[in-house]
Write a structure and sequence with these properties.
997 residues, seven-stranded parallel beta sheet, single chain, alpha/beta
């Protein structure tokens, strides 16, 4: 039966080696050696070998001829390597030592298992079962006997077989045939027995093969005792005569130091002190021997370390949140591999301070020196007192470090520069705790400070919470949405707010009551305007003024009274006469700034939802421009104006301190270097608010610009914001900075998307957006309307009613086109269109918010104008008109790539399923409810999982608005438009002429 055996034998030019063979043992016959066992055999037939056999094959493969060549002479072929091996430059050093080491490991491995080993003598051609080697399962022990006499030191060496049996005999090597199998760690062969030893080389045995004793002359005794004898006493059993060996055991004292590891990082090193000897807490030195020479009287004190006792202290350190960084080295559990050296040292120092009491209880001693510097590891206490002072939090903080009481302001530079090393007056190094950097660094980024008091703007109340309580409960806390309970709506608000709108209203009140500015950033269509109007109604609802508002109003009043200017009876031909008691609240007026196209909508919304508030439309060329404009403003609650007017009239507007200053579509002022931004900054107001659906359009600078307007300094200077947030977040993907920025802005920015508030919305929300015509568009429209009106009069006199209706319809269509954009009827028109601009602005906002929109128009040319503008602004779109041949391709393009779908009302009113869209724009519907419903149903149909917002755009002061009013008066008109191709046929001459008035 084949089995694995190991054969020790001599090889040419190599010497003694060991080879694993696959062999067959035959009774009284030579052993049949089939082939060398290699790792290839193990790979091919793994189940045929035991784990010990696999280990033996793997080990001995390291000293095969090929393995030796690859390791020591890879460029040489095998034959040349073996032939010239004795002349190899590494032969007597590396190569022989390598073989010696592997043979010793093989002997130890064979002693623990069942694999048989044989010795094949040089010159013998066969191997027999009688050549088997006997290897005990443990190391033999050398037994030294030293006798110090007046003539010298006489000593002998015997071998003690392994085991704990007292009857185990010792034997001498004298006159025995001893063969040395291994030398670095001795292994000897006597006949068929192999004895291996631990920790002693073969040279110690060789003299005793021919001698029974060795004598050391008197003159050499002292160095011999200091060297050889001490090592033997430490490592082996020694019998001594003429000198004394004392073996002691004692409880060590644990000792901690701060040292560097192999990577030059600071670590805590654990030592143990035994009498006058200190050991590093590893297991490399288990016994220490001290020698005392008292006038030739030698005493060896043999100290054995108590590893079990030492382990108890290792366990105690791990209980104190230390992790092993090596056998005797430790680091605080919160130290990470990417921390720098100074941060780890700070963590170590903080660990010492934190655990000082427990270390004393455990009887630890420690040395706080590190790289020639003494590190403070005493008691540290931090005292923080805070109070409010108008717009500031005042913080007084002191640190008691040992005997020194230090103002916390002294650490400002270290915290900002992330430098934990602070030198105390006595020269000791105080390592600022790492926790301080996360707890206080943000404080000094935004606070003003002197030697005693640190002043933090009230808007940074979250930073104050970190300062007072630390960041352990704040740093990883998820951002919670603002939750505010039910709030009673103000009297006079004529609207029913949805739950999320009530929440937004309450949030706006929270900001006002605490003197903060804010950004209301809800998705388009969620009612930012209504929430704001509700809050403003609350402000002017017989509300008492706070002291600051009263003070500012008194200043405004004094300025007014110092002038002889009287409030005019009529501000313009478009405004009603001002009533000197319109604003009864005693508060100054509030200024709302917006794109020109939205002024009319805001006025309509105020009239609809808060009719008791008095509005002054400060736009147009007929607006009153005077440095005493405040005398007029104080008679109104609200002043509406545009960004352009604000920029042009800022020198006058900045003289009046408004109650509220509100910016709608505040992304218009996202560029902090623009003139309009500079103008906005100059306006004085008690409260500031911005409204936008896209607080960030291009970069985080957009956010900084808008937040800086409502809460100046909240995010620091622009340079600081770029360095501290933009670069780490955008270039380094720094999540910690993202969390900090979110935490800073979270109380002052409220954003709800449609998806978040879907349960509070009806399936379809419809809104009419009134668009003011541009001045050039208005002139064009009025000129055309005047000409058409004169023509229609003549038509009614000369034509039949049906013919008159047809002519009126044609004229009506022409005015509708001009109301959309004059270029639709006159290619030479160079001006713009108020409706067109507002449509484009809304499209950009919706796409920026991540939504999709269907844009319906009765006029293909209208869509073509939009298409041209979308291309210039690089907004992706699809278009469907009656001329489209591949409808499915266009629809697929919208569903997969585009966010905007331009559709002519006739081509796309039916037969389409476009549930990707959640917004619908009706640019110029033909007032046919059925046609409108069909268009809306392209998005709002089975498969739609989101709420749908519908916007109808009407040009103010045009025929579009008049038809809408006529619809309100005559509900039956809706049926006409459903059933008749020309709805004007059923109108009287007076009703038709009213449309063109």
């Amino acid at each position: 039966m084949e089995q694995l055996i190991v054969v020790f034998t001599e090889k040419r030019n190599i010497g003694l080696t060991a080879i694993p063979y696959i062999a067959t043992l035959n009774n009284n016959e030579p052993i049949t050696l089939h082939e060398h066992a290699t790792m290839l055999h193990v790979e091919e037939s793994s189940d045929k070998f035991s784990s010990q056999e696999k280990e033996i094959i793997s080990l001995l493969s390291k000293i095969s001829d090929q393995a030796l060549r690859k390791k020591f002479s890879p460029q040489q072929n095998l034959k040349d390597f073996i032939d010239h091996l004795p002349q190899h430059r590494f032969y007597n050093t590396l190569i022989k030592d390598h073989i010696d080491k592997i043979l010793y490991q093989a002997i130890v491995l064979l002693s623990k298992g069942t694999t048989k080993a044989y010795f094949k003598n040089e010159g013998y051609s066969h191997l027999y079962t009688s050549d088997i080697l006997k290897i005990p399962n443990c190391a033999a022990q050398p037994v030294f006997t030293f006798d110090l006499t007046s003539e010298g030191l006489i000593y002998t060496l015997k071998v003690k077989q392994c085991g704990n049996d007292e009857n185990i005999k010792e034997f001498s090597l004298l006159n025995r045939e001893v063969e040395f199998i291994c030398h670095q760690s001795a292994a000897i062969k006597i006949q068929n027995d192999i004895w291996y030893f631990d920790g002693i080389d073969s040279n110690k045995f060789k003299p005793f093969i021919t001698k029974s004793t060795i004598t050391v002359p008197l003159r050499q005794i002292e160095p011999y005792m200091e060297g050889f004898v001490r090592n033997m006493v430490r490592n082996f059993d020694v019998t001594a005569k003429g000198f004394e060996i004392i073996t002691t055991k004692e409880e060590p004292v644990p000792h901690l130091t701060i040292e560097k590891d192999l990577k030059h990082f600071p670590v805590i090193a654990l030592h143990f002190r035994y009498s006058n000897r200190t050991f590093l807490a590893d297991r490399q030195s288990g016994i220490f021997v001290d020698l005392k020479n008292d006038d030739g009287r030698f005493t060896f004190t043999k100290l054995e370390r108590d590893f079990d006792y030492e382990q108890r202290y290792v366990n105690e350190l791990t209980k104190l949140e230390l992790l092993k960084s090596g056998e005797a080295l430790f680091k605080p559990a919160d130290a990470h591999c990417n921390d720098d050296s100074s941060e780890v040292l700070s963590l170590i120092t903080n660990w010492f301070i934190k655990n000082r009491k427990r270390l004393d209880e455990l009887n630890f001693s420690f040395d706080s020196g590190y790289e020639g510097r003494e590190i403070f590891v005493g008691k540290v206490s931090l005292t923080i007192d805070t109070n409010e002072d108008n717009d500031w939090f005042e913080i007084k903080a002191r640190v008691q470090i040992g005997e020194y009481l230090i103002s916390f302001y002294k650490f400002r530079k270290n915290l900002l520069e992330n430098n934990p090393e602070y030198i105390l007056p006595n020269g000791q190094l105080f390592m600022i705790p790492v926790e301080w950097f996360t707890r206080f660094s943000e404080l000094f980024n935004y606070a003003k400070s002197d030697k005693e008091v640190i002043r933090l703007p009230r808007a940074h109340f979250q930073i104050l919470e970190q300062v007072k309580h630390g960041v352990s409960n704040l740093e990883n806390a998820p951002q919670q949405p603002l939750v505010i309970g039910e709030t009673e709506l103000p009297k006079g608000i004529e609207a029913k707010l949805r739950p999320y709108q009530i929440e937004g209203y309450a949030w706006l009140n929270f900001l006002r009551e605490n003197g903060f500015g804010g950004i209301l950033a809800d998705d388009m269509g969620l009612g930012k305007t209504l929430q704001t109007i509700t809050m403003i109604q609350k402000v002017y609802q017989n509300e008492e003024r706070n002291p600051e508002e009263a003070e500012h109003e008194e200043v405004n009043k004094q300025l007014d009274d110092s002038s002889s200017h009287k409030v005019p009876q009529q501000l313009s031909m478009f405004d009603p006469p001002p009533n000197p008691v319109f604003n009864k609240s005693g508060l100054s007026a509030s200024l709302i700034v917006m794109p020109t196209s939205l002024v009319h909508n805001w006025q309509n919304e105020f009239n609809k939802f808060a009719p008791s508030l008095k509005i002054y439309n400060y736009t147009g060329t007929n607006r009153l421009r005077s440095k005493e404009i405040g005398k007029i403003f104080r008679h109104y609650h609200i002043v509406l104006t545009s960004y352009g007017v604000l920029r042009n009239d800022v020198e006058m507007l900045k003289l009046y301190r408004f109650n509220y200053f509100i910016l709608d579509e505040s992304q218009y002022v996202k560029n902090p270097t623009s003139k309009v931004y500079e103008a906005v900054k100059e306006i004085e107001a008690s409260h500031r608010l911005t409204l936008t659906g896209t607080p960030i359009e291009n970069s985080l600078v957009d956010l900084w610009a808008q937040m800086n307007l409502v809460n100046k300094g909240l995010l620091g200077s622009l340079a600081f914001f770029k360095r501290h947030f933009i670069q780490p977040i955008t270039k380094q993907n720094n999540e910690e900075k993202e969390i900090k920025l979110q935490r800073l802005i979270q109380p002052f920015l409220l954003r709800r998307t449609k998806e978040k508030v879907a349960k509070d919305l009806p399936p379809v929300m419809e809104q009419v957006l009134y668009c003011d015509m541009t001045p050039e568009q208005e002139r064009f429209y009025e000129k055309e309307k005047s000409g058409i009106r004169n023509s229609i009069y003549k038509v009614f006199e000369q034509k039949t009613p049906d013919q008159s209706a047809i002519m009126a319809l044609q004229a009506l269509t022409r005015l509708r086109q001009i109301a959309n954009h004059p270029v639709m009827v006159d290619d030479t028109y160079q001006g713009s269109s108020g409706k067109f601009e507002q449509i484009i602005d809304n499209l950009e906002s919706i796409v920026a918010e991540g939504h999709n929109v269907l844009v319906f128009s009765s006029f293909v040319k209208d869509l073509e104008l939009l298409e041209k503008e979308l291309v210039s602004r690089k907004l992706r779109y699809a278009k469907l008109t009656g001329a489209t041949r591949e409808r499915e391709k266009v629809i697929n393009e919208f569903n997969t790539k585009a966010s905007i779908f331009l559709i002519s009302l006739k081509a796309g009113g039916v037969g389409l399923n476009l549930t990707k869209a959640d917004y619908v724009f009706m640019l110029n519907p033909w007032w046919n409810p059925a046609a409108e419903a069909q268009a809306i149903n392209r998005a709002h149909r089975i498969g739609q999982t989101r709420n749908v917002f519908v916007y109808r755009f009407l040009s103010s002061g045009t025929i579009e608005e008049k038809i809408a009013r006529l619809q309100e008066k005559k509900m039956q008109l809706a049926d006409m438009f459903v059933n008749n191709n020309n709805p004007l046929t059923d109108l009287s001459k007076e009703e038709i002429m009213e449309l063109f008035s």
